[in-house]
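User: Hi! I have a protein structure encoded as tokens and I'd like to know what sequence might fold into it. I'm fairly new to this, so please keep things simple.
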């Protein structure tokens, strides 16, 4: 088993390393970023809560605002 883990590290096999880590970590992988790094449940929940708090505080753009802004790009 140690040789297999070392091979994954030597090869830079991020997917296998992430799978192995997830199997021993308490924090479950719920998805992956575009670069292949895992998104863990706790980090995802924290970010979602922060986004909801910002929305409730009125920190967002409406579709009309976004369309006007994007027209200037």
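Assistant: Happy to help. Inverse folding works backwards from shape to sequence: for each of the 73 positions I chose a residue that suits the local structure. Here it is:
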């Amino acid at each position: 088993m140690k040789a297999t883990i070392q091979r994954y590290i030597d090869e830079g096999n991020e997917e296998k390393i992430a799978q192995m880590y997830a199997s021993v970590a308490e924090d479950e992988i719920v998805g992956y970023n575009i670069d292949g790094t895992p998104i863990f449940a706790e980090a995802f929940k924290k970010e979602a809560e922060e986004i909801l708090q910002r929305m409730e505080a009125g920190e967002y753009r409406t579709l009309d605002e976004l369309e006007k802004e994007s027209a200037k790009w």
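A useful reference point when you look it over: The chain has a mean pLDDT of 84. Feel free to ask if any position seems puzzling.
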